[in-house]
């Protein structure tokens, strides 16, 4: 059974007249009759009742017509989806981000992209900066959101925003009124990012403590900003986190003090492949850049 058999059948079923159907299909009547006969033989079912006065569908023919119309509708949808996927470069777009980026912004990005590219499957991954750079170089993700710097000739980096730092503490365990009281915390237990997981960020936190005149007593380490904040909430230490986290956390048990005296910030950047000029990537970057937290 070939596609032409089905098209010929639908034409005859619609016209209920072999002459009109053949004219519609731009073929002569004998070949059309032959194709219908071949179809009936293959199905082992009579589809039409033919006599000198009229052509009618049999019960089997009526059922076959209904199913074939549904089949062709599905084929049209498949064709449209295939075309859309081809236009959108691929059927999958992978975005990685660091844990310290406020998730609502990422959620808004996905909603925005889904409206523009409804046939693309968008996937999100929470990955460290170092691993994002490697994944992008290897083509395992299409876009990343990291804390700079980036030292790769294969990657294009767009500054999204500059992020400051804030001390985070459990209000029941620690009493601190302002930035001026930070030195009194030198004997407190600190919770930091793991040095191997985020080496640059780890060094920045040590620089911050040095600026305020002490070396932190790091007892607990974690690979996720939310885990760090949770450890602080549980009274297991204090920490220094990006100010972006402080702006978006309203837990009454946790306090934040922004570190304004030190002129130290981190660049949060959007990274993409230098060879990627796809419409989806351009749309994603264009959406994020005006929305600086």
Automatic annotation (TrEMBL):
Which protein, by its recorded name, is this?
LysR family transcriptional regulator
Pfam families annotated for this entry? HTH_1 (PF00126), LysR_substrate (PF03466)
Q: Which UniProt keywords apply?
A: DNA-binding, Transcription, Transcription regulation
Q: Give start and end of each HTH lysR-type domain.
A: 1-58
The cross-references to InterPro entries, in alphabetical order and at most eight, read: LysR_HTH_N, LysR_subst-bd, WH-like_DNA-bd_sf, WH_DNA-bd_sf
Entry's PROSITE patterns? HTH_LYSR
Report the sequence similarity comment from the record: Belongs to the LysR transcriptional regulatory family.
Q: Does the keyword Cell membrane apply?
A: no
